[in-house]
Amino acid sequence: MRIKVSFQKLPHAQGLSLPAYESAGAAGADIRAALPDGPLTLAPMARTAIPTGLCMSLPDGYEAQIRPRSGLALKQGLSLVNTPGTIDSDYRGEIKVIAVNLGDTEIEITHGMRVAQMVIAPVIQAEFYETEILDDTERGSAGFGSTGTES
To answer: What is the pTM of this model?
Structure first.
């Protein structure tokens, strides 16, 4: 299934490609850092909002989820603070990647570097209401580890 998503490039993203799927079966499209004035250095345990220079228009009923790239997470410790980050269909501002360096060495983020991946997903909005009694289940109110730790 495919939907159309339009993007606007801000001046600091000129020359960069739009998000792109890097393989035929990819669920996430890679997005790039827009840092034309020079690299950004992220110290261990530091976090920052990496600009992408992109604004987008999603159709109603969809969201964009911003997720870490697994290779960067494994090799350098670059992850996202609020993963997945959600971009709502009515947001028109710049997409920024809220990154954290979970590694033990500095990470240099350069202009055009693929820093995250974006997954477009359908959204269901619930209708919330209050009730006096909830239906019973086998688990009930048991939480946090109540289903056991055995494999």
So the answer is: 0.87
